[in-house]
Here is the input.
Amino acid sequence: PLSAAGAACHADLLVNGINFAAIPVQVQQQAGQDVARTIATETGEATSDVATSVRAGTYNPAWSPSANRPPADVFVASVVENCASAEMVLGVFRGPQMQAAVVSALSRALANTNAITGDIKVIGAAVTPGAPSAAPGEVAGEGGSSSTILAAPRRYPRPLGGGMQLAKDRRKAQRAAATVRRGGGL
Here is the structure.
């Protein structure tokens, strides 16, 4: 796995069909809580182990891959604590069941606003191993991680190469996790 047991993952979604500027702050918070509950249910995590914030699509946190990122209306930033495997979380995030559940949660949260501009659709997902207890608005460690796994629609090239690159990234993530267990930083 790309994450050590007990470590956290940054798990982010890119979403279209929403005018972020039309979402009141209170509704942004409620939408984040609703999506966090959905993520917890879909990943099998405790609700207390998932924190999510809904941000403008231009949000560019250091942990998230920006190369080849498609333009999005909304960036849903999440931290999943006790992330045993970034690959597993990415698999769930890419799945149609999770994406439909997130779209449903956002639709319900935004129903009484003018923020919905069309069909709400998840257009990309990225999962990055990160430091435990990092809030979605905070950067865990220094800069991004080369062990990021990115999923985007097929028309967008994936930043990772074939299996060799993934194997190198996995080894790097395992070394970083070992460093954290020994008391070092990322």
